[in-house]
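pasting for ref
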Amino acid sequence: MTSPRLMAIGDIHGCDRALETLLQKLDITSDDTLIILGDMINRGANSRRVIEMLLEMQKACHLVTIKGNHEEMVLEVVKGRKPAHLWMEYGGKSTLESYGGSISNIPKSHIDFMEDCLPYFETEQYVFTHANLEPGVALGDQDKQYLRWQKFKKNQPVWEEGRTVVVGHTPQSSGLPTLIDGWMCIDTYAYAGMMLTAADLTNDLFYQTHTNGNFRATFSYDELRMLMA
């Protein structure tokens, strides 16, 4: 019997084919916890299908979804607090097309799904959020500007000794995750023709699929460190 796994997937950005292949490769069970780090929508080919697949995943495992800046953006438009043209400038056109071209076509269940996303999720060993954490500020006091918009830097200091912060948001142009002391960034530029990445934190493994749905590889943390050296 396999142990329950703790896993995280980086920014999907509407790349439904990459997500479909990745979920198949992960072979998720009902005992597993899967964290989606936000930016599930916008820019890629089929945001609607991505949300539909994740809604199905809620029945298959313990699914935790983190709110990214792109979910925040859509909700601001849907609720009439921001003009739609700002959303269109950040990849909203493809999302709207996946819903038949009209905001009114977005099902309430999809809006509720995005609304219910968490600002962060934590375990004894890890903290998960979309973008970053402000140094010296407790989790409960973090501002959404840091949680959803602040870029990750490869030289930033450890946020809390003994825990690793797992983020997306800042695309890694190499197509590979970045591991530094106290941090892991797994946004690997899926929407720009690169990779969608899942981190199996229980077994120190990464899984990657290409935007087109082709499986790329499974590799260990040590193998990644060798590639980064």
